[in-house]
Amino acid sequence: MDEKKMIRARMKEVRAGLKSPEKDKLIEENVLSAFGAEESFFVYLSFGSEAATEGLVRSLLARGKRVCVPLIEGGVMRSVRYREPLEAGAYGILQPKGGEEETCRIALTPLLAWDGEGYRLGYGGGYYDRYFALHPDVLRVGLSYAGQAVEGLPREETDMPLHAVVTELGVTRFL
Question: What's the CA gap between 23 and 166, in Å, rounded?
């Protein structure tokens, strides 16, 4: 566990140095190019130095896609339809004021690091791994800057690998 803590601390700094509006726009374009034919998306609402999703959410809605976002209540993350106004939820991250659980075809996931086998390092809360375990048919796609790729990550039995990662450079597919 201490190894994950050390990697998290290092990768938070790395990611902060990689963030740029230009890269965020390229990630958005790559998502739309690779997955734009899908009808439903579960999209995290970006926070801090995460790859930005505000523009992507607007683009998906403008294309008539069903967009859901995370809602954390009682320590559980659910996928609910995006609607405003949003309010600060767990960890200060914006979320809708309630909503019914909906399953989308693609889950766009934040991360701190990812490896060549599709494993991601998140913040350590396990929210996404628990969600993915309950929804195994959802396509798991990480959004990241290319510089967040690492050689390998420590794993736990509950870690769920991604099917793909989208960066400013393109799409890497795993499973």
Answer: 11
- Measure the N-to-C terminal CA separation of the chain; round to a whole number of Å: 26
Residue with tokens 């374009």: 29
Low-confidence ranges of the chain (pLDDT < 70): 1
- Structural domain containing residue 21: 2-173
| CATH of residue 54 | 3.40.50.10420
pLDDT for the residue numbered 75: 87
Predicted TM-score of the model (pTM): 0.94
Q: What are phi and psi of 2, to 5 degrees?
A: -60, -35
Tokens read off for 88? 């600060």
> How many whole angstroms separate alpha carbon 134 and alpha carbon 14?
31
The pLDDT, as a whole number, for residue 90 is 80
DSSP-assigned beta bridge partners for residue 95: 87
